[in-house]
Amino acid sequence: MSRQQKKSIEDSPSQPQKSIDQDSPSQSQKSIDRDFQKQSRSCRICNSTETVSVDSVNGYDFYKCSNCLFIFCPAIDRQYMNKLYNAGYHNSEDGAPEKGWAYDTEFLKPAFQQMEDRKAKILDFGCGESKLPAALRDQGHQVTGVDIAPPLQKQENRLTGDILELCISENQFDLIYSYQVFEHIPDPLPILTELFRITKKGGFLLVHTDMEVPERFENGFRNWWYISPPDHCVFYRNRTFEVYLQDKPHELVYKDEKSVIMKK
Q: Which label site among 39, 108, 180, 259 has the fewest CB atoms less than 10 Å from its CB?
């Protein structure tokens, strides 16, 4: 329940109290309701129920997992975001930060070092209107772009749709990267599973999203410019991915303040 909803209920005129035989909720129903509320606040990375309230931003309540430090908003789920993005990528008027797409491949250097700079079959997950696929093709790589939002103009070798519904063949890519995408994904676990499924054995998954940046810790959560729900709705730490990998056969091979690289 949001603070606004709670206030409206508390400020509403009092109503006559129902007796037990006037259809008041049973103890078992109250228990079910409590279990549902607790489940809805379970961590969407490690499934821990040890989550604590962080703050409310623009009417959205955020919770942090005490185990993996993942921050999320229970009110925002995959269906909610898919409905928004099917109409096209948000601009600043829709709550998206006024930051552009990546225009150079600098952030990919650690991944190419892991691959010993060989030419690769690459997937740009959440490509949007990025110029990176074209730049990487110019370097000799084979690149596919995929995004749930339709492109503003025709793009070469571009897939449009929900990655979970596109039925891409497994073991396809040497490298999958996402640049400033995972903060838009309210339910990241099925996405991670799918991305690893279509990564080749020995291939790499690079996730780029603001994690350990200094400005995150300077002025408190709600004052961090990166928070802009519903557009940016989840937030990671390096530890988030370390915990995610604990029961997986994959390996964390690189991390910095904005990127992690995992090897399949």
A: 39
| Distance between CA atoms of residues 199 and 186, nearest Å | 22
* Cβ atoms of residues 203 and 175 within 8 Å: yes
pTM for the model? 0.81
- Give the span between the Cα atoms of 89 and 181, in whole angstroms: 11
Can you give the pLDDT of all 264 residues of the chain as single tens digits?
Answer: 444 443 332 333 333 333 334 444 445 444 434 444 444 899 999 999 999 999 999 999 999 999 999 999 999 988 877 777 766 554 545 444 445 456 678 999 999 999 998 999 999 999 988 889 999 999 999 999 999 988 888 889 999 999 999 999 999 999 999 999 999 999 999 999 999 999 999 999 999 999 999 999 998 999 999 999 988 999 999 999 999 999 999 999 999 999 999 999
Instruction: Say whether 252 sits in a helix, a strand or coil.
Output: strand
CA distances from 29 to 20, 25, 216 (A): 13, 6, 41
Please tell me whether residue 141 adopts helix, strand or coil conformation: coil
